[in-house]
Amino acid sequence: MDTTTDLVKSISITNLANQRVAVVDRIHSALDLLNEAEQIAKTAHLGFPRLVLDDAYACRGRPTVTGDYAKRDEAEAAIVSVIDVRGWSYLLSESGLRTFMDAQAREQWDRQLADGDVPELTAANIEATFTQLYGARGDMFERGVLACFRRLSWDYRTNQPFRFGKRIIVKYLLSQGSTNHRVTNELDDLLRVFRVFDGKPEPDHRHGAYSLISDARRERRTEAENDYVHLRWFKNGNGHLTFKRLDLVEKMNVILAKHYPNALASEVR
């Protein structure tokens, strides 16, 4: 079975990897030509500009940790890193794999992309990474429920310290006037659980809680809803979430009981 093809039906991994090789080869050749031109200029006592690269590549006339200006291999590695980061970002989004990730996994990948800490964009690395993430979706499924529950504040009576009830209050849904990606990522974990428990496919991450709230705010509304939740937000940034399907809420509480076996029992005592 071709796992990569199964996971990424809308993207040709082989073609993407081959295009990446072609781009890197041309970058290498271009830098070779620039180096050759510089040597000719020096021999002829002509001027030659420093290799000009964007500041984002950390190579534009700035000293490295050794005190020297960026060398050819450093410049090439920096350029290739940018190519790979953009490629991984595209793959994770357009393949739909982010749909299977919980908030923690998304945050980890976003941090790696921001730091340029990604594997080379080869077909083998893509397949290995996607297979690992896809195989962990069951663990991420439950981890997302647990993380959202643990972040609830017990300062609000609506939030029950033993289980999910009919309503929950989440803090910082809005932060400095904008929708908070971190919080909506966690709400997406709950929405994904609802849909799976309801026998439906996972929702596309591009049409999750962030999109639901943002669309409503553009229309100057302070509430939004879908088949599973009604969400209302306030000036203090808090969001009040009402669950529409209590049968599915009880299934989430089974996940809590699995990891905290004494929690629901404590509520009864």
UniProtKB/TrEMBL annotation:
Domain DUF4942, chain residue ranges per copy: 83-261
InterPro entries: DUF4942
Lineage of source species: Bacteria, Pseudomonadati, Pseudomonadota, Betaproteobacteria, Burkholderiales
Biological source species: Paraburkholderia unamae
Domain of life: Bacteria
Record Pfam families: DUF4942 (PF13708)
Name of protein: Uncharacterized protein DUF4942
